[in-house]
């Protein structure tokens, strides 16, 4: 209990733009505003064909509702500050980096290679240094999954430098 | 009698029995592994169900649901970490009892009460779902709109965490459902010229991202966590004294769980907490709760498994999911071309009663597996995260890719994984997003069609008694958390 209170107090002492409450409020309002503006670019149904509401009306209503509710939680956070979250550790950022690597490799080189690289990268950075287990998670298991999806479900994976060796 | 025979059909089909056995075993493994669970597992296995006929596919998903909900109790008792959120209340007494050297007794009680709760809820499902389906014949577009709104407000008010944050998450889920071509006018919305987005965002990339990938990120922040494991010799059936002490609690919690399950919310998690607190309130030894009370385990476990059958009631009768896992099951129904609702009860009773029977058998099967195999299942938690999660990632990626064979779906999954992580970090539950996404088309479609019927006059909603009742209930649901907070302050 004391810990939570201390964390709350620690959060209270920060300038408002560093607080989680403001960051969450800002991000939601920022993206909602962009989306709301983009709803004005949606095509409109001519009045003669229009029955009920325009296609943009419903998303507009939802975005206004989200912005309104976000303002309420931000206002309420003045009375009840959120507890301050712990700093994110290094493996978290490395896992995010592995996702970025996955997207780049799957787009430019090969889907299967991207899975292997991510698996080895994540496993290694999470503390697995034994080569056999790295091969297991990075090569053997993805290969089993690949063959299973390919043969049982009849799935065709996107072409790439390794996948092409299998298909041709 | 005829319906009873239809319910027993899975017993006479070797294919369905194999599916049931696999589903129960897979569900138990998912339930045992902290971070995974029946929702993520169901979403991961959904692409595989495309190779099955509709009944086998739904039997597989429902058996995973039943067994996965129970499986969470094994890790809750042995390592003080709930395998599923629904088993959180089981930790409170399961682990202290295990520390006293009575892990077998604690697991025995969890197994028995889960089975009783599960079977009780299937009976509720068999009798209540057809009644609700018949009522649904009275529903038009305005009533369905009001019902969907009621579902979302219930989710906000009795779900986990802040009701306002839950509402934001639910509205966000509905917003996602508006991406793509508008179903009434074919006008593009939020597609920004990307062709793949014109068909909308699929359910599977969002579910796998919000549950599996965000959990992977959560696990990356918990690598230094050490579990204290309690040794288990064998699961013991509860003694006669235990039964005398707990039978009322088991049946009370089964009733509570079934009722909570019917309400569209986070079913098992809320049910187990209420079941646990009611068990404490009625107990002759409330001071024992939190120190290893056998009644506490019974109260929590009967309730969370009873919620499984309850949550299937609105899913099958109305097409409104009662929990996150039933949202996955509902998706399974839709992608197999089965439309839930009153017509399903009239036109395909064999299909429905097959599901009911399969749920009943799944409850018996997880009793047997749990009783004889809990020790083995507990060993699965020894698989280190650094090996397990990269493997789950490989299955997630291939499963997500397989449905539309689109790499964009995989990227969407990763995006929702990161988003889900931050949502959970800042106290936003991801379950309302899923329910909002599932209900989105229903909410918008019924609203727009109602406005066509009402000639654009919103006040006409108030002239429909059933719709008005749901709106009043929605207001009560929204006011309930405020009243609860005020009462707690007083």
**Topology as H/E string of chain B?**
HHHHHHHEEHHHHHHHHHHH
Q: Taking all residues together, what is the mean pLDDT of chain A? A: 83
The level of helicity of chain B is: over 70%
Strand content of chain B: under 5%
Largest β sheet strand count, sense and barrel closure of chain A:
none
What is the helix tally of chain B? 18
Strand order across the largest sheet of chain B: 1-2
Termini Cα gap of chain B: 54 Å
The total of beta strands of chain A comes to 0
Residue windows where pLDDT falls under 50 for at least 5 positions of chain B: none
Q: What would the average pLDDT of chain B be, to the nearest integer?
A: 82
Structural class designation of chain A: mainly alpha
Number of domains of chain B: 1
> How would you sum up the global shape of chain A?
flat
Largest sheet of chain B: 2 strands, antiparallel
Poorly predicted ranges of chain A (pLDDT <50, ≥5 residues)? none
Compact description:
By secondary structure, chain A is mainly α.
Please outline the helices and strands.
The complex is a heterodimer of chains A (168) and B (490).
Chain A: H1 2-12, H2 20-39, H3 57-79, H4 90-108, H5 111-125, H6 131-151, H7 163-167
Helix pairs in contact in A: 2-3, 4-5, 5-6
Chain B: H1 2-7, H2 14-32, H3 38-45, H4 54-79, H5 88-136, H6 141-158, H7 163-177, E1 180-181, E2 188-189, H8 203-220, H9 240-262, H10 267-282, H11 294-318, H12 324-335, H13 342-347, H14 349-380, H15 385-404, H16 407-425, H17 431-453, H18 465-489
Antiparallel strand pairs in B: 1-2
Walk me through the structure.
The complex is a heterodimer of chains A (168) and B (490). With 168 residues, chain A is an all-alpha fold. Chain A folds into two domains: 2-79; 90-167. Chain A has seven helices and no strands. In chain A, helix 2 (20-39) packs antiparallel against helix 3, helix 4 (90-108) packs antiparallel against helix 5 (111-125) and helix 5 (111-125) runs antiparallel to helix 6 (131-151). In chain B, helix 2 (14-32) runs parallel beside helix 4 (54-79), helix 5 (88-136) packs across helix 9 and helix 6 (141-158) packs across helix 7. Classes of the chains: A mainly alpha (168), B mainly alpha (490). At the A-B interface, helix 2, helix 3, helix 4, helix 5 and helix 6 of A face helix 7, strand 2, helix 8, helix 15 and helix 16 of B.
């Amino acid at each position: 209990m004391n810990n939570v209170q201390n964390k709350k107090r620690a959060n209270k002492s920060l300038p408002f733009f560093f607080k989680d409450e403001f960051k969450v409020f800002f991000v939601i309002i920022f993206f909602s505003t962009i989306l709301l503006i983009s709803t004005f670019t949606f095509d409109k149904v001519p009045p003669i064909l229009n029955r009920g509401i325009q296609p943009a009306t419903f998303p507009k209503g939802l975005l206004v509702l989200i912005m309104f509710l976000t303002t309420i939680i931000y206002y309420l956070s003045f009375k009840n500050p959120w507890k301050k979250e712990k700093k994110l550790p290094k493996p978290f950022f490395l896992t995010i980096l592995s996702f970025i690597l996955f997207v780049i490799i799957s787009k430019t080189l090969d889907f299967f290679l991207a899975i292997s690289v991510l698996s080895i990268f994540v496993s290694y950075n999470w503390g697995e240094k034994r080569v056999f287990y790295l091969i297991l998670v990075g090569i053997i298991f993805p290969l089993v999954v690949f063959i299973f999806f390919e043969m049982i479900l009849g799935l065709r994976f996107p072409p790439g430098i390794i996948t092409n060796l299998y298909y041709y | 009698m005829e319906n009873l025979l239809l319910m027993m059909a899975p017993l006479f089909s070797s294919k369905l029995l194999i599916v049931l056995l696999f589903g129960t075993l897979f569900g138990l493994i998912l339930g045992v592994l902290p971070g995974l669970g029946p929702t993520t597992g169901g979403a991961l296995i959904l692409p595989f169900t495309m190779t099955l006929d509709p009944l086998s596919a739904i039997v597989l998903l429902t058996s995973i649901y039943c067994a996965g909900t129970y499986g969470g109790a094994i890790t809750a008792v042995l390592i003080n970490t709930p395998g599923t959120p629904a088993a959180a209340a089981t930790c409170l007494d399961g682990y202290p009892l295990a520390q006293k050297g009575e892990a077998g007794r604690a697991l025995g009680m969890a197994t028995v009460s889960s089975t009783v709760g599960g079977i009780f809820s299937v009976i509720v499902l068999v009798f209540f779902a057809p009644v609700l389906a018949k009522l649904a014949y009275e529903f038009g577009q305005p009533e369905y709109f009001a019902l969907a709104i009621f579902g979302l407000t219930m989710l906000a008010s009795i779900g986990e965490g802040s009701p306002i944050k839950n509402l934001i998450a639910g509205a966000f889920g509905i917003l996602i459902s508006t991406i793509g071509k508008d179903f009434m006018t074919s006008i593009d919305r939020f597609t920004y010229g990307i062709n793949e987005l014109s068909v909308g965002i699929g359910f599977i990339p969002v579910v796998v991202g919000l549950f599996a990938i965000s959990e992977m990120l959560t696990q990356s922040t918990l690598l230094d966590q050490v579990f204290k494991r309690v040794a288990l010799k064998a699961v013991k059936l509860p003694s006669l004294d235990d039964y005398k002490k707990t039978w009322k609690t088991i049946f009370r919690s089964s009733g509570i769980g079934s009722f909570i399950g019917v309400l569209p919310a986070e079913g098992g998690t809320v049910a187990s907490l209420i079941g646990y607190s009611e068990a404490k309130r009625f107990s002759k030894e409330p001071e024992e709760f939190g120190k290893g009370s056998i009644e506490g385990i019974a109260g929590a476990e009967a309730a969370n498994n009873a919620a499984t059958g309850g949550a299937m009631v609105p899913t099958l009768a109305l097409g409104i999911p009662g929990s996150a896992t039933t949202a996955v099951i509902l998706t399974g129904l839709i992608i197999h071309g089965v439309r839930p609702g009153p017509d399903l009860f009239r036109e395909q009773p064999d299909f429905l009663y097959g599901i009911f029977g399969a749920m009943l058998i799944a409850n018996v099967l997880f009793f047997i597996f749990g009783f004889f195999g809990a020790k083995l299942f507990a060993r699965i938690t020894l698989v280190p995260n650094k090996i397990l999660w990269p493997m789950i990632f490989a299955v997630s990626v291939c499963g997500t890719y397989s449905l539309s064979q689109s790499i964009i779906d995989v990227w969407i999954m990763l995006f929702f994984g990161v988003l889900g992580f931050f949502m959970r970090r800042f106290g936003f539950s991801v379950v309302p997003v899923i329910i909002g996404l599932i209900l989105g088309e229903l909410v918008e479609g019924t609203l727009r069609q109602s406005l066509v019927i009402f000639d654009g006059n919103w006040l006409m909603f108030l002239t429909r008694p059933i719709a008005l009742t749901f709106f009043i209930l929605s207001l009560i649901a929204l006011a309930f958390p405020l009243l609860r907070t005020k009462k707690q302050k007083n």
